[in-house]
Design goal:
By secondary structure, the chain is α/β, with parallel strands linked by helices. It is about 35% helix and about 20% strand. A hairpin with a 2-residue loop joins strand 16 and strand 17. Bound molecules: zinc ion. Zinc ion binds near residues 123, 319 and 320.
Amino acid sequence: MDPTRAIWIKDPLGILADGAERGIVVQNGRIVELVPKGGQPSISAVFFEAGDHVVLPGLINTHHHFYQTLTRALPAALDRELFPWLQALYPVWARLTPDALNLGVTVAMSELLLSGCTTTTDHHYVFPAGLEDAVGIEVAAAKRLGIRVLLTRGSMNRSQRDGGLPPDSVVQDEDTILADSARVVAKHHQRGADAMVQIALAPCSPFSVTTSLMRATADLADKLDVRLHTHLAETEDENTFCEQMHGCRPLDYLEQCGWLNARTWLAHGIFFNSEEMKRLGKARTAISHCACSNQLLASGCCPVCEMEEAGVAIGLGVDGSASNDGSNLMQEVRAAFLLQRARYGVGRISHKDALRWATKGSAACVGRPELGEIAVGKAADLALFKLDELRFSGHGDPLAALVLCGAHRADRVMVGGNWVVMDGAIPGLDVPDLIRRHSAAAHAMQVG
Ligand SMILES: [Zn+2]
């Protein structure tokens, strides 16, 4: 497709933007014009007839562990809370191979694209012997599929030997982690508003790495000017663990390690008190809300309204596919909407809030203000949904129908001006073959 050729996404059934009733024009990977009611594009453009489509900014997934698609609904991990759940899964994850990771990543990214996701993060922190280039495998898959990514070089260096949860075979030492972090940033991290591949640094959680590594990672992220990510305040257990190990609450520890700043976004953020939320807002640290995972593991419910009132940006994350157990971001929007509406009531939470978290809020989490919004100058990252399934029949408001009737599959997805999903499929992807090979790899890992 010639990127200089302007495309008019014409007369959509619905669109998440004001003043774009007749659609939008994209060119050179950007949105160049919003066409208001009764208007016409000011430049010559071919058109894509969108009369059957509801147009959203591409959804942004702010927390995931792609490799976990290989351990979905695993019997040994069912009906467990976070810590015993992790202990059941670590030995299985220790058997991850490069081929299995490639399949797991391809499945996760494909599921995400087909659900309307145009930018995704991944938090990869399991590095058994032979899997040293996990990030390289993920970059290659992202380039094949055309999805925009912020991949994190995760880490763990506190194993059972040192009072941590993971087995010795999946952790690395501090020097190896820091050297490889610098390597993957130098090799893969792109800068600027059109970046398709970015890298962040991400110790798994403050409780699976040493204080020395937490501090050194923050220093390195500062030096390399990349973002920082970790899990925090996911369970009550964590507070107890932190009090015992460090004599303070998790956020105090994070601050002591040099992490409480605008470079950082945190997965979960359930157990912060009001004073801590104010500190997060002041520091401009963002939160990835993972509604499905939090419900499946019965971890709790992120206080999104108090967070936003304190100035904290809220994004959405599907979290790993062993605690979801899917990678469907549109379904995550619905899950977050329902969970938070049950908590706060109809007056405070609407479908538009959930869509805002998955777009503008998520863009803040990944530090990409040029994403997550349909406005002139923003990236041409779009998700188009048809309302032609039984579940939508008889609908009124098209945008509300997406969330309330349970949209789960995009018909068209555009990333940087390129169509990467057409007619509900990823061009060139043999889905039955992928399922066959991914299932075989998952089975081999699970039986050992
Ligand atoms: Zn996670």
